[in-house]
Fold:
Amino acid sequence: MDVYILPVIFIALFIYCVIKRINTYDTFVKGAKGAIKLVVDIFPFIACILIAVALLRVSGITDFLASLLAPIFRALGIPPELVELVLLRPFTGSGSYGILENIFTTYGADSYISRCACVIMGCSETIFYVATVYISQTKVKKLLYAIPVALLCSLVGTILACLICKVM
Amino acid sequence: MMLASMLVLLIVNPGAVLSEMISASTDALSLCIELCAVYAVWLGIMELVDASGLGEKLAKLLRPLIKKIFKVEDEQTQKLIALNVSANMLGLGNAATPMGIRSMQALDDGSGKANFAMIMLIVVNATSIQLLPTTVIGLRAAAGSTNPSDIILPTIIVTFITTVMGILLVHTINKLFKHKKRA
Structure:
């Protein structure tokens, strides 16, 4: 079912544009043109955050943090198997998808751990990545309380995800 | 953060520092090329949505909500936020990004500090209400799950709760800040 949703929306949109007598080709090209400039503008920020994450991982700091935080997570009801995912999720999208696949192969796609991991992925975002990229084209240097609030919500989401997967 | 990792690496494995940085930068470049392709498709689609007046309609639909949550009066900005939020709901994080960047530019007041609406946009994006976690379901199906979409409902419930919580928190903190300034 899911696979039909986007194509149907796209076709409906094109038909609607034709009815409205819009030059679809020119309009599409005009929009698509903006992509290259946008990517060139945000590349340095993406590079910087990926380098920072890579250094964190190879230096072993994440493993160290994971072992340090495992008891706290356990107290919050988060299984220790998910600590690495929870720690890296705010930084990297592709990296956390890698960890998710790892969890699938290690514990089985239908296990409690895997289902928790899925819900955690769904209810959280790569917070640092999003914040960096979003404000990269503005003059903003101070995000005030945005990051702490976002992280707190993610943590609550993680705890809820582990709870809800027990009953559903 | 980078400095701390480098210091640790200096002790553990000094040879890895430069090679790791370059390999991460290479990852960033290939990610950007991928993103460029994705953005080209989505920005093209969005231009159509915009030109056909559908963007306006969507914004009108979501306007009362956006006005209340973000306290934004400018109509163009409301439209950008509406598109960003709807893309997020469909699980299209990469489609949401260009709209998010543009919303931020529109909201920027040049003071160097994030204002209320900007903080709200980051928090709402971070808790990302998701109706269709498409990528996760795809990965899970590929891993041999018998019922890959049974995580949809729990995901919706959790994102709904965290998003509402995020919005309320930002509102409360904003009020506290204002209170302090007056006092």
